[in-house]
Design a protein that fits this description.
442 residues, alpha/beta, eight-stranded parallel β-sheet, 35% helix, 23% strand, disordered N terminus, binds zinc ion
Length: 442
């Protein structure tokens, strides 16, 4: 939707044109905020009229056959929903023109610090030597990548915004090659975008905590405003589950952070790492709900009974899974994870970099992929799996009662060209507007 090379200024301009298509979509006053989100100030109010909200399910017999919607007027104040009112087409404010309002999306696994995005196309090379081979490659290319990594992170953030995400969890390399520069550069980009975007940061020892000498840097990073302590394949990279995971857990406890490790390892070492982390979280309940395993591929290789057993342990311990929804040779047991209450979230991981070039930047596209992979085809099932994009915030509850948006909810919103959630997921409908904490991003 937004060309890759588009500048920040053009992005805002084009988006405003898109928004303004037809008649004067932006009322005076809002137009200023839309073209310069940084101007949005505390106490700012915003009115959206002709907003389509889901109001219930239609049934044929027992089966949900469709989704009912109506138009509303929504008032926003101080970054929150102030009221949801019957529609007033004469109200002064932004005319949403009947577009569907959904919760803004959350991109929950990405590397904003490390990308080619914003530069010319480059396919990945042939991989050699597994993750260790990639570490050797990174040691060569990172100094070059770092030269304009703030700029590229900003471009990447704009891509995510154009696809409806206003929040991301970004891993950021902490290793002896970039030292703390990947983090500092990304923090600059986030500072530039702070009125329209937020990120949780994970200090990520991409080159191993001990495989390269990263432990001291990780401790420094933990004191530099990160939210999570990362980790990487403890057996294959650091040679020890205990040594590597104990370091991660202790650092998280010492600095009151969460945990989000990359675990690509399958087989016994992968399963043992999951069990080790689950046990550590059970021993330290402060980590419950704050501990995540990204990828967690080991689960995909287990038989169904063992998958259920692991999912139950993870659900009980409050250990979540971050997934790119892989397909091909490996399908993650996402429905089983949901069954046991595991906190599942989705992300693109790589948009275009030396690891992968297939990320679209859309977490709605990942949700569509999940719907296809796991057979969520009906109106009801499609409407439910939207939770993967919104982190469990859904306009309707399972009975079809409207539960979102309500007064007090954060005004993190997308206007999307779809008639209902199910259509948005199935068609990967285009996002026409993003609002971050009451600020119109575009
Ligand atoms: Zn990753």
């Amino acid at each position: 939707m937004v060309p890759r090379s588009i500048s920040r200024k053009d992005f805002i301009k084009n988006s405003s044109i898109l928004f303004a298509a037809g008649s004067s979509l932006l009322a005076t006053g809002q137009a200023v905020a839309a073209s310069n989100p940084a101007m949005a100030a505390p106490g700012k109010t915003l009115t959206l009229k002709n907003v389509r909200l889901e109001t219930g399910f239609e049934y044929e017999g027992e089966e949900v056959s469709g989704t009912k919607t109506e138009l509303f007027t929504i008032e926003i104040s101080d970054g929150k929903i102030k009221s949801v009112l019957p529609n007033n087409p004469a109200a002064k404010g932004i005319d949403a023109k009947g577009l569907l309002l959904l919760p803004a999306f959350k991109e929950m696994h990405i590397h904003l610090d490390k990308t080619y995005y914003g530069e010319k196309w480059k396919a990945t090379g042939k991989r050699q030597g597994g993750v260790k081979g990639m570490i050797a490659l990174e040691q060569q290319i990172i100094p070059e990548l770092l030269k304009n990594s703030t700029y590229k992170a900003e471009k990447l953030i704009e891509l995510l915004q154009s696809k409806g995400s206003n929040i991301a969890r970004s891993h950021v390399n902490i290793e002896p090659t970039s030292k703390l520069d990947s983090l500092k550069h990304l923090q600059q980009a986030l500072e530039h975008k702070k009125d329209t975007f937020e990120a949780e940061l994970v200090a990520f020892p991409q080159h191993g905590i001990f495989y390269t000498d990263s432990a001291a840097l990780m401790k420094e990073a933990a004191q530099m405003g990160v939210d999570y302590i990362g980790g990487l394949d403890p057996t294959s990279i650091d040679g020890s589950i205990e040594k590597s995971m104990d370091f991660v857990v202790q650092l998280a406890l010492d600095y009151k952070k969460g945990i989000d490790i990359h675990l690509h390892e399958g087989g016994e070492s992968g399963v043992k790492t999951i069990e080790y982390l689950v046990n550590k979280v059970n021993e330290n309940p402060v980590l419950k709900g704050k501990t995540f395993i990204s990828h967690c591929f080991a689960l995909a290789y287990l038989d169904r009974k063992k998958q259920e057993e692991m999912a139950e342990k993870m659900g009980n311990a409050g250990v979540g899974v971050m997934s790119t929804i892989p397909f091909g040779g490996m399908i993650m047991p996402i429905p089983t994870l949901y069954k046991y209450g595991v906190d599942v979230r989705a992300g693109n991981d790589c948009i275009i970099d030396h690891w992968n070039t297939f990320g679209s930047g859309s977490v709605l596209q990942k949700t569509n992929l999940a719907a296809q992979l796991y057979g969520y085809r009906t109106e009801f099932d499609l409407s439910r799996i939207l939770k993967l994009a919104t982190h469990n915030v859904l306009p309707l509850d399972d009975k079809g009662n409207r539960q979102w948006p309500k007064a007090g909810d954060r005004a993190d919103l997308v206007l999307i060209d779809a008639s209902c959630s199910a259509e948005a997921v199935s068609r990967i409908s285009p996002v026409r507007s993003l609002i971050h904490r009451g600020n119109v991003v575009f």
